[in-house]
Amino acid sequence: MKILIKKILLSVFLAGMSSGLFAQLTRGSIALTGTFGLGGGKQKNDQTNSQGANFVTTDQQTKQFVFLPAIGYFVTEKIEAGIVLGVSKNTTINKYQPPSQTQEIKNEQPFNGAGLYGNYYFINQEKFNMYGGLQILFGSGTGKVTTTPYNGP
Fold it and tell me: Which ranges of the chain does DSSP label H, i.e. alpha helix?
């Protein structure tokens, strides 16, 4: 529960910090933006056979990391164009505990890339502004799957 509260507070803090980045929307301005994200979770699944006996237990753990720094240039007061770099990694660990064999399967998927983006700002004279954008990211990554015997929890 404490970890969830820390994640929520960090998200609120980062959202507040990012709102100050768009204070000046003038032609010729440079914007340093980006995305940073961490995620993860755990899940346990029990599968039973037709007699109701526990057949397979699966413990799944996921971890995600995303970092997308970007730099943009305001072509007009409402149009921003820029470049973005991307680094991410997703890891999923499944621990299977069937009656015959217990094993762990680890799937790692890193990704590195670069791309272009464009944003259009809907500016009004109030304190609330919105924008819509398009981002194209090209990159590559190589996945790795590892299966090892597992001795249980």
Answer: 2-19
Give the pLDDT of residue 8: 65
Average pLDDT estimate for 104-123 = 89
What is the average per-residue pLDDT within 84-108?
Answer: 82
The Cα–Cα gap between 103 and 105 comes to 7
Compute the distance between CA of residue 69 and CA of residue 114 in angstroms, rounded to an integer. Answer: 10
Degrees (nearest 5) of the Cα angle 84, 65, 30? 25
CB 18 within 8 A of CB 31: no
Contact 39, 7 (CB under 8 A): no
| DSSP one-letter code for 75 | S
Q: What is the 3-state secondary structure (H, E, C) of 61-74?
A: EEEEEEEEEEEEEE
d(CA 124, CA 79): 14
Q: How far is CA 99 from each of CA 4, 50, 152, rounded to the nearest angstrom?
A: 34, 15, 12
Can you list the positions of beta strands (E) in 75-150? 79-96, 103-122, 130-140, 144-149
